[in-house]
Amino acid sequence: MPPLDLIAFAVFVVLIGGYHVITGYRPLVDRSIVGAVQAQRVVWMRNMAARDVRIVDAQLLASLSQGNAFFASTSAIGIGGLAAMIGSGDQVQKLFERLPYAAQSSPVVWELKLILLISIFIYAFFKFAWAFRLAHYTAIMIGATPIANGSNHADCEEHALRTARLIGIAGEHSNSGLRAFYCAIAALAWFYHPIAFMIATAWVLSILVRRDFFSRSRRLLFGQKT
Questions:
Q1: Measured in whole angstroms, how far is the alpha carbon of residue 37 from the centre of its chain?
Q2: How many independent structural domains does the chain possess?
Q3: Which domain does 39 fall in, by range?
Q4: Which has the higher per-residue pLDDT, 97 or 143?
Q5: Residue 76 domain-assigned (yes or no)
Q6: The pTM is what?
Q7: 201 inside domain
């Protein structure tokens, strides 16, 4: 692999991997949009535990799980399409290399780029598929919530918190899958030029940072002024 491609790939791994590790630090999670949404999930589950009829909660959960199923299917389609290009993507490679300033790639490097994209979509598939499954478990937890009768408030509260934590884990996996889609957009730039790959990686990282920590939606979820 040419040195510039190695540097571009290293930049991608360090920036994206480092961001994933750093944002997994609990104090940062609590200050991010992920933490803000989780706080609202706790409120939701507490309200759910106080209701006798929980049809609305089940419908909301089903709506959320449908999004995970859609993205899991999309990931599988992407994996299949990219796998079909391995060993037979000469026409696509020639198309990219005809673009102005596009970098020339050997067949081995070209296939490594495809493998990177396939790996990203495989990661996304497993994240969305597990999030979909966790939503199913959450539905069971909602169905198993004790009926509030005034004497079991502590049990209802504890069950609501566990349910909120479970759906929060599903949300974390879904969020990781969405981040993988962002990374796939950056990886596409590598097919054009390694410098474009590094620029796209920095651009995607800036979008993730802004939306996780500085977006208006985060401030609204925390009850702050926009």
A1: 14
A2: 1
A3: 33-179
A4: 143
A5: yes
A6: 0.90
A7: no
